[in-house]
């Protein structure tokens, strides 16, 4: 599966690859939720009859449900789906509205802890050495 942004202008499939995200989101360009960030943790809500409750969902919705059986960051979900984050946010919003997934900030943020400045400084130093 190629990424929608990898299409070359002269590629005969370029038009199709740009249309795919539009069709997946049914033409929506923004999420109904503004609290979803790259580090938001997404987890599937277990239902008694998963097969029955998956009717009417798009394949991408089902993949999200499978991937998030253990909590996963939204950025990881987007990477695994090979979709733009904006498209993934819309799909996750759909699942939240259906009660199929939950979303929460990472634990450190959720319990009010600040960012680990030592870790951030180490990352910064490493990037500067490149």
Give the helix proportion (percent range): 40-55%
Strand order of the largest sheet: 2-1-3
Give Rg in angstroms: 17 Å
How many β-strands, per DSSP?
3
> So how many helices?
7
The description of the largest β-sheet is:
3 strands, antiparallel
% residues in beta strands: 5-15%
Task: Please provide the ordered H/E string of secondary-structure elements.
Answer: HEHHEHHEHH
- Briefly note the structural class of the backbone: mainly alpha
How far the N terminus sits from the C terminus, by CA atoms, comes to 32 Å
Task: Based on Cα principal axes, name the global outline.
Answer: globular
* Poorly predicted sequence stretches spanning 5 or more consecutive residues: none
Mean pLDDT level: 76
């Amino acid at each position: 599966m190629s990424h929608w942004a990898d299409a070359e202008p002269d590629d005969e499939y370029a038009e199709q690859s740009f249309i795919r995200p539009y069709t997946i989101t049914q033409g929506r360009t923004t999420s109904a939720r503004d609290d979803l960030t790259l580090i938001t943790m997404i987890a599937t809500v277990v239902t008694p009859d998963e097969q029955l409750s998956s009717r009417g969902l798009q394949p991408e919705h089902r993949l999200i449900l499978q991937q998030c059986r253990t909590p996963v960051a939204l950025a990881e979900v987007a990477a695994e789906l090979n979709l733009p984050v904006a498209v993934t946010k819309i799909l996750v919003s759909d699942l939240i509205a259906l009660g199929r997934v939950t979303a929460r900030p990472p634990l450190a943020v959720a319990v009010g802890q600040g960012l680990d400045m030592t870790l951030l400084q180490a990352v910064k130093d490493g990037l500067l050495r490149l």
